[in-house]
Amino acid sequence: MTDVTLSGIHKRFGAVHAVRGVDLAIPDGEFTVLVGPSGCGKSTLLRIIAGLEEADAGTVAIGGQVVNHLPPRERNVAMVFQNYALYPHMKVYDNIAFGLRARKVAESEIGERVKRAAGMLSIGNLLDRLPRQLSGGQRQRVAIGRAIVRDARLFLFDEPLSNLDAQLRDDMRSEIKRLHRDLSTTMIYVTHDQIEAMTLADRIVLLRDGRIEQMGAPLDLFERPATRFVAGFLGSPAMNFVPARLSADASVVEVDAAMLAVPAGRRASLAGRGASAVVLGLRPEHMRRFADGEQREGVVRLGVTIELIQPTGSRTYATFRLAGVPVVAELQAHDVNRPNERLDLGVDMNRAVLIDPATDRVL
Amino acid sequence: MTQTTTSSTERLVAGRGIGGFGERHFKYTVLAPAIFILLLIGLFPLVYSLIVSFQRVTMMSADTSFAGFANYAKLFADARLWESLLHTAIFAAIALPLELVLGLAMAQLFLERMPGRQVFVALLVLPTVISPIVAGANWRLMFDHRFGPINQVIGWFMGEPTPILWIINPLTVYPAILICEVWQWTPFMFLILLAALSNVDKSLTEAAEIDGASQWRIFTRIVLPAIWPVMAIAILIRGLDLVRLFDIVWSLTRGGPGTMTETISYYTYVQGFSQFEISYTAAMAFLVVALLTVIVTLALKRMGIAR
Question: In a mutagenesis test of the A interface, which of B211, B222, B303, B307 is the best target, namely the one with the most A β-carbons within 10 Å?
Fold first, then answer.
């Protein structure tokens, strides 16, 4: 059983307060992704779990045992570094075997385990090479091999894919996911890439300025963000934020001259605020070309003039202005053909997010 | 003005006819003076002393007749020469590992950030900055058996005056020279190794730590191989310097007592500039050149830094 419990973790680097009170419980076998913009404290948190940094306050427990004062080598965790950190003068085999040799495993068993790990990652033919003779993707595999060969109770990944090109990154992402399925070891993965976070995680922990902004299953976070920051961080292209006014009875959101009706089911929870300023959050994929005669509960019609078109092949991103801010809609490839085209969009108000501009919290 | 110069240069470069040099030969024309001077000051003395080593030149007679290998044959019969080689080897064999280990330990110590680090590093490097002759002269005073502070301090601990004859007593003369040598050149090792150590990728040692390696294992398996290319060069430079050890010996002991601390460089100097055996000294110099060439070649091969 390797659950990880962090409570009240603080870390300062001089004047910088990098981690400001993080409480987090990670159950056994879960794939947790720590995600957030650079400088949010996610890597520091990971290094504190690994034992490479010491927390100024709070406790770290791995498998029920408080490990604050244990050096990294006694925590029995494995870590994959962003720059791979392969030992440059050792062949791939020796790189993978290093941890086992340090733990005095018999050489015959080392041979077996290295071969098994290499087999899992299809790097069996590279064992005699030096790291500098490998490509980026191969190095990454070796680094992962070095981690899995030890049967560590906890795997830590520190932005392992950020040095790879896009294609390789997609491949390795699936590979890491498969690895987790096969090993079912507890894994903690740090990234700034929200797509990696969404695709890999059982649970996403979104960090901001050293605090947890929100955590939960990927789709929960995506569909029910608690704050404007979460709403804007997850999703690509990002959510559009438009200044708007909510009517006193919460029946209508007023943007520019347009009146967008709030679905009846949502009015109750929004009423009682009185007429107030709100920020309307619209995801690009929740707008589409309005078909004549279409009538669907909560979808409202909005006439716009397209300023910019960005076809990606399967979809086309169309930019228009609403209340003075550029808004991106994700349409079908041929929905719009040229700039300055007038277009009626159907906006799905069931999925729209309303944010209190004073607190940045989602209403 | 500038324009005129440029255009005339262009014409010179472009003009294939001028002096028979085309554009392609222009670079050789420009390089020629430098190469000539280099050969003159580098190669000429070497060749000249090689020639002299086959003659019978002394201060008394400029006998330039061909002597064959007479001088070289004499080398092999010269016991004092072989002893001086042995002394040199002893100095190198003790001083080099000492400087290396001390320098490495100090570098490791100063790797951590600490207040006043820069001041300490600057102070520690001072011995290397001063001239070896000055260092030797200073240490001669330090070792003085009546007025030297070293005997003074030892005296405090012993409770009575202890007039150790540092540079006269055969038992203490080697330690005295070695102390001076190590004092002066450990900072050199320290500085180079400090630079090498601070360049070691921190994620490597962190990865090894997580892999479960002990501090010692990390140092020997990860850090040492990482700094080896730099360390090998430092060892080579210091090694060659030690083979040529002269100034400290000259200022501390003049090779004494007797010829006990004569190094090969010092003995060569004695032959050349007290005995004025010009041809014999030239032969001796060539022996040293041959010796160093062998050492350097072997070292480069073994250390794998020639690649």
Answer: B211
